[in-house]
Amino acid sequence: MVVKKVMIHTDHTQAELTTYFLDNSPEMGMDRKRPVVLICPGGGYEFLSDREAEPVALRMCGMGFHACVLRYSIAPETFPTALWELAASVSWLREHAQEYHFDEKKIVVCGFSAGAHLAGSLGVFWNREFLSELTGLPKEQMRPDRLILSYPVITSGKYAHMGSFENLLGKDSDDEQKREFVSLEKQVTADMPRTFLWHTFADDAVPVENSLLLAQAMREAGVSFELHIFPDGVHGLSLADAETDNGTGVQIVPECAVWPSLAADWIRRG
User: Which of 50, 95, 181, 217 has the greatest CB tally within 10 Å of its CB?
Assistant: First the structure.
């Protein structure tokens, strides 16, 4: 396994991309190409959750995928800094696809909570002029092939997780137009990549309506998605098993712990 830290630069920040790339072997095919899953931990754009970082990467590796974790900029940095870092990270992966044996058609961005808002932002903005002008990168170079969005922050409207948007835009920001711009269900087009969504009905921090609103917008745009809504489980489950429990036991929800296998099957299909 190739484990290393890659520095991702903008004009004023530096993010850290940690790789967990599987080695090829003569016994299993030296030319084997695997999907790569780029993980964006959550934390309300205020901190980055370790529970949604390396444990998820190792689970993805255990299912036969390359993985990496992006530790992106958070408050007091504001939009679109983290988006720039994520776009540059996808570009770096695409540039190094041959070296590390990636399947260039399966660069998957996987986000949790606010990290899922970041992943979704790249999904809807990858081919917008403002992002290519900001990053200086070709649009296709920044394009994620698929998204996995776990209990995502999506809307800045009625069902918003307001703390995430305050941190993303600045606590003193009262720019309604900008708040609307980062409400992702309003930015979906047919160019958004196919998406795997999961949420719990019981989530009282980021209501399930966030996933439902995005799914409805994707349906209207003709974008393929797979959506799983589990009845029980608090916000921030990560793997929903003992590996990522915080010691309280409330984050162990066996019926939700199937989501990585469901997502892996979805990645492998076409």
Answer: 217
